[in-house]
Design goal:
heterodimer; A: mainly alpha; 16 helices; 2 strands; about 0% strand; B: alpha/beta; Ubiquitin-like (UB roll); Rossmann fold; 3 domains; 4-stranded antiparallel β-sheet
């Protein structure tokens, strides 16, 4: 009886291996999105309903544009892989809370359609979509994109007061003034850690971002190679060249904790698609990001340089990948 | 010592608990056996029997036709009823001899020679050659070739591979528990032939009973330097190059053989077969096959006569479950999915793994590479599978070659870890057929 059964049955025949791990692109994207939750909560706490509105609008329009593009081109609808959601979320976290509604929509369009889909979709884009979206917005709407509001914990004040970011103050008025505004150094650091300072929605709370990053390290979704070299290089340059009283008088901690350094180093520069694949290449990539960030912060026209630094290094990723090849097993004597 | 690791690799669930405690049992005698004349890497054998000829168990039916070749013997006594062409697991047609079993189990002359260690290396080699022994871990490389290194390549180390790193498979494990002294004797024979005084047995540390069993057997055999190494469990620990790296710290260069770093590796099952051949003159006509997987009713470790149809084994294990969808000759990482259960067990069949829908990931639709680098970290050969797969997918096979295409031994780690479910090994195999090494 069984014999009959066995012989009439047809089996799947395919090439080995026949088992797979349960890791998937979708799971990675959704996990990274989840890891951003603490920073999102802190952003909402400090910047209020407008922040939530901007974030939601970014996510909805990013996913919508992805859906629309795939639908029009009759491709498989892959919006549930979470990649468009993540792009929208990251874009939203990189905006000031005060932006009008068309800013998230225009940024999402640029991120998803121009930067991602027109380059071939997931896996083929050269630049980080969320960062290109933000760069586009920054150069097109410079006033709106730098209209920072004073954080107002737990929605106390409805009318937001415009102010400058710590890095903006540092650029325009200098280090002494910055310390003066925040009282003392310790107070400044604590504001930077918790996120009680002006800046983009998702970039201000260093603690919340570190919490998310710890989760990504734990899941091995990111490794130390890019974030550590990025932050380390930036800190080193800030310490050596960032001070008013000659070499080695800078404040590295201020530079690490302010601006988009935490968000950029752990969540944007580590984007798989737009960073090198080899660990050795990633180290160079991270150093480049850190160097360019500080070059822009200290010598450039913008107070903040993380975004442009990562985008510039994105260009070099394919080149770095060519230069850093893996070491073949047993190939010891090769040059 | 103190290496015990290699770079890369993966940790799939080993699923060995399904069959690890099942003692090796002999299958019910099959009414007929189909014995392919090419069960090894190298030249196929020439048939030396004719239809209707009465033959005995262990009688030569296929003669080796070159140095890299291995003779084939009948696994039953009975009558040759036909000589046919059947596809092997790779899909190539192979001449095969069909023998009807008369159930008399009449052996050709077997002779116990307890003084086998007094034989000269050449006499031992002759016996191993005539017994048709091949690498039983699955690669089926004729054992005699590994035992005959050219003079300019001295050997100083022999390793018995007891890693059995493929999920589900437990045949070598059972053999190491049930026949430890036979394996040690086999190792001693190999060491004698090669004139080597360093012997190792490498076993993954998820098999403590096997390690213990062999350690005991080593103590009992005095006066010889054999070390049982507990290796960290990680697939593909049983791959020759990884095993050598873990035990000796030596790296076999690309395209080179273990003998280039003065090492010879034999599988535990092969060591047992060598012992049986040298002591009793028994040719390789049976082997241990693990039948396991979620799709089989009663997983077992069976002693199977070469040529027994796989369907016979499946029945012996209670048949397939309703949800069985894939039958693999070998383990799930490197085994071959087979289309028909009529195929016979050969010298290289280490197991039959039956998977259900649950374990099968349908991979018709795979996603683009997101360059996460997981495959690069997992590759034990230090390759960049992501680049190989992209080049092959786009038809730039020459580009794949520049990324050391031919150093890939298709262990499947890259494909296992890929979050985009890309069929990387498949694409690499495709590229290998399109360019010359």
């Amino acid at each position: 009886m069984d014999k009959e059964n066995n012989h009439s049955k047809s089996f799947i025949v395919s090439v080995s291996p026949h088992i797979r791990s349960d890791e998937s692109t979708g799971r990675i994207m959704w996990s990274v999105s989840a890891s951003l939750l603490p920073a999102v909560i802190m952003g909402a706490y400090y910047f209020g309903p407008r922040a939530i509105f901007a974030l939601a609008l970014c996510i909805v329009s990013s996913v919508f544009f992805e859906f629309l593009y795939l639908k029009i081109l009759k491709k498989d609808i892959t919006i549930n892989d979470g990649s468009a959601f993540l792009t929208g979320l990251l874009l939203g976290m990189n905006l000031p809370a005060s932006v009008p509604f068309y800013i998230p929509v225009a940024g999402s369009f640029f991120a998803i359609i121009i930067t991602k889909q027109l380059f071939g979709g997931l896996g083929y884009n050269i630049f980080n979509p969320a960062l290109i979206g933000r760069a586009f917005l920054l150069v097109s709407f410079p006033k709106l994109m730098t209209a920072w509001t004073e954080p107002s914990p737990a929605f106390i004040k409805i009318d937001a007061i415009t102010t400058a970011t710590p890095l903006g103050i540092l650029k325009e008025e200098g280090y002494t003034k910055l310390i003066e505004i925040f009282g003392d150094k310790a107070n400044l650091y604590s504001h930077l850690l918790y996120g009680n300072r002006a800046g983009c929605i998702g970039e201000t709370s260093a603690i919340a971002l570190l919490l998310g990053a710890a989760f990504l390290f734990y899941r091995r979704y990111i490794t130390w190679h890019i974030p550590l070299t990025f932050i380390g290089t930036a800190a080193l340059i800030a310490w050596i060249f960032g001070g008013n009283s000659g070499l080695f008088s800078g404040d590295p901690l201020l530079h690490i904790l302010s601006g988009g350094m935490m968000l950029g180093a752990f969540f944007m520069a580590t984007d798989y698609v737009t960073s090198p694949s080899m660990k050795s290449g990633q180290v160079l990539f991270g150093i480049g990001c850190g160097f360019l960030t500080m070059l822009i912060r200290l010598k450039g026209g913008y107070p903040e340089g993380v975004m442009f630094a990562i985008l510039i290094m994105n260009c070099f990723s394919p080149l770095i990948d060519r230069g850093f090849k893996s070491k073949i097993f047993g190939a010891v004597k090769k040059k | 010592m103190g290496f015990l690791v290699f770079k890369g690799g993966i940790h799939p669930a080993d699923k060995k608990e399904l069959s690890a405690d099942k003692k090796i049992t002999e299958t019910i005698k099959p009414p007929k056996v189909i014995i392919p004349l090419s069960q090894h890497i190298g030249a196929p054998c020439k048939p030396v029997v004719t239809i209707n000829q009465e033959i005995k168990k262990g009688e030569l039916i296929g003669e080796a036709t070159g140095f890299v070749s291995a003779p084939v013997h009948s696994s039953v006594s009975g009558k040759v009823i036909s000589i046919i062409e059947i596809p092997n697991i790779m899909g190539r047609m192979v001449t095969s001899v069909v023998v009807e079993n008369d159930f008399k189990d009449e052996w050709t002359l077997l002779k116990d020679n307890p003084d086998y260690m007094k034989l000269s290396p050449d006499e031992i080699k002759e016996k191993i050659k005539n017994a048709g022994i091949v690498g039983m871990g699955g690669a089926t490389f004729p054992a005699i070739v590994k035992l005959s290194p050219p003079k300019e390549k001295p050997i100083d180390t022999v390793i018995i591979n007891g890693s059995e790193c493929e999920p589900y498979l437990t045949g070598d494990y059972r053999l190491m528990i049930e026949k430890p002294s036979e394996i040690i004797e086999g190792l001693k024979i190999i060491m004698k032939v090669l004139g080597v005084s360093n012997g190792f047995i490498g076993i993954e540390d998820n098999k403590p009973l096997a390690i213990e069993s062999l350690k005991k057997a080593v103590i009992n055999s005095e006066g010889i330097n054999i070390k049982v190494c507990s290796l960290r469990t990680r697939y593909p620990q049983g791959a020759e190059k990884m095993l050598i790296k873990a035990i000796t710290g030596r790296e076999v260069p690309p395209r080179a053989l273990p003998m280039d770093v003065k090492v010879v590796v034999h599988n535990a099952g092969t060591a047992n077969a060598i012992y049986e051949a040298v002591r009793f003159g028994k040719p390789l006509i049976d082997r241990v096959v693990t039948v396991s997987g979620e799709g089989i009713r009663e997983p077992k470790n069976l002693l199977v006569k070469i040529g027994t149809p796989i369907s016979h084994l499946i029945e012996e294990c209670g048949g397939l479950k309703e949800n069985a969808v894939k039958v693999i000759s070998g383990g799930p990482m490197m085994g071959f999915a087979i289309a028909s259960l009529d195929m016979p067990v050969t010298k290289g069949t280490s197991g039959i793994t039956v998977l259900t829908e649950k374990e099968i990931v349908h991979t018709e639709k795979f996603r683009p590479c997101i360059k996460c680098g997981r495959c690069i970290d997992a590759c034990p050969m230090g390759l960049m599978p992501s680049m190989l797969s992209v080049y092959s997918e786009r038809g730039f096979f020459e580009g794949a070659k520049e990324y050391n295409l031919f150093d890939c031994f298709e262990c499947g780690c890259c494909t296992y870890v890929c979050p985009s479910k890309r069929p990387i090994v498949h694409l690499i195999r495709l590229a290998k057929t399109q360019v010359k090494p």
